[in-house]
Amino acid sequence: MAPQASSISAALREASLAAAVALVLALPLAGVRLPSGAAEPLAFRPWWVVAAVLAVFVGRFLIALHISTRRPRAFAAPPLFDRALGAMTPWRRWIFAGFIVAVALLPLMPFADRRMIDLGSLVLIYVMLGWGLNIVVGLAGLLDLGYVAFYAVGAYSYTLLAIHFDLNFWESLPLAGAFAALFGVLLGFPVLRLRGDYLAIVTLGFGEMIRIVLINWSDLTGGSEGISSIPAPTLFGLSFTANPAAGETAFHQFFGIPFAGVHKLIFLYYLILALALLTHVFSMRIRRLPVGRAWEALREDEIASRALGLNPVMVKLSAFGIGAMFAGFAGAFFATRQGFINPSSFTFIESAIILAIVVLGGMGSQMGVVCAALVLVLLPELARDLAGFRMLLFGAAMVAIMVWRPRGLLSHREPSVRLGDRAGGAP
């Protein structure tokens, strides 16, 4: 489709406005170079400003022109990318199974080093958190900006149970999830009548309250200094230490192999993979149960749901509680993986990243969460060598996704319930 004169003029207006904003920002940020010493004067770099303004003008003009001339696709079939990964087609199951096998075999590959395995564990933590928040935001439609609070409750619950009550990881894990679910229900009660932005503000305040309590309750949580020497999990009683305590057997001693620190990383990788898959299976199963369909009904229209006899109080509380439970599991794993926790690990930016993973991947899409976690977690880490341009590349990737995939990477998802075929075979 050839661009019309009106489309070109509208694109020029938008590009000019964006260039004016870029000029205001580029003058102090790129146009002035601060002196490194007292005798060195300020250095003005006008060509940097010109290059930045021209880049913004041309980029915004091309994007606006592309959007204005794009053909509308009303009632069109979902894109191939969505059909391949977003829908529950038979061959999509094979794709998902192949992806799981590849992820499971990653630590055993010859090119897998300690950094790659550690990055894989980090991505899986955010995938698990994204799937947990997807229950609250994607299925129930409740905007939660304080999800990191349940993550912190799980981490500190596991740490305190392991240190003060001498419970191992497997005994503390369900208790950490239960405590986080309890806090989710406690948060749900005050916000039952709130929706939209008001709900987001209250949950944001709840997250900050938990962080401030962790800082000020120093007798229990260690305050800003945090808690160190957190016990690590064992594999059926086999520890991953070079010199185990008296009466204990180490992993390398039991199997008769030389000690290697990577064994612990591989074990932790498979542990978080198992927890993430458990979260995925639970989410896919529960969304087909009556409570899952009640979440989706509440998301679409709360008034109609109430008229159908649903109890919005119980529906919201169940969503908050179950979503918080998985955050508690992830928090317990985070604590044992790090061996040290403090309140600085549970700031608002963590909630923002988890929410961005859910929204960027596509509301309610399980595979979309995986794709978004790979983009949001791996991209900044892989671009760490670019120093000052690292976050610039990250922001450019986010803008590109918002332009070309405004509804998320996988905006199409499988319905929770399908009507069966008729007796005659017709759908």
Please tell me about this protein's structure.
The protein is mainly alpha-helical. The chain folds into 2 domains: 57 residues; 281 residues, ABC transporter involved in vitamin B12 uptake, BtuC, CATH 1.10.3470. It has 17 helices and 6 strands. It has a two-stranded antiparallel sheet with strand order 1-2. Strands 3-6 form a two-stranded antiparallel sheet. Strands 4-5 form a two-stranded parallel ribbon. Helix 15 crosses helix 16. The chain is globular, with a radius of gyration of 25 Å. The C terminus is likely disordered.
Give a short overview.
This protein has 427 residues and is an all-alpha fold. 65% of the residues lie in helices and 3% in strands.
What is the topological layout?
Blueprint lengths: L4 H25 L2 E2 L9 E2 L1 H24 L10 H6 L4 H16 L8 H26 L8 H17 L4 H20 L7 H21 L1 H4 L5 E2 L9 E2 L9 E2 H5 L6 H25 L3 H11 L1 H6 L4 H27 L1 E2 L6 H14 L4 H17 L7 H15 L23
Parallel strand pairs: 4-5
Antiparallel strand pairs: 1-2, 3-6
Helix pairs in contact: 1-2, 5-11, 5-12, 5-14, 5-15, 5-16, 6-7, 6-8, 6-14, 7-14, 11-14, 12-14, 15-16
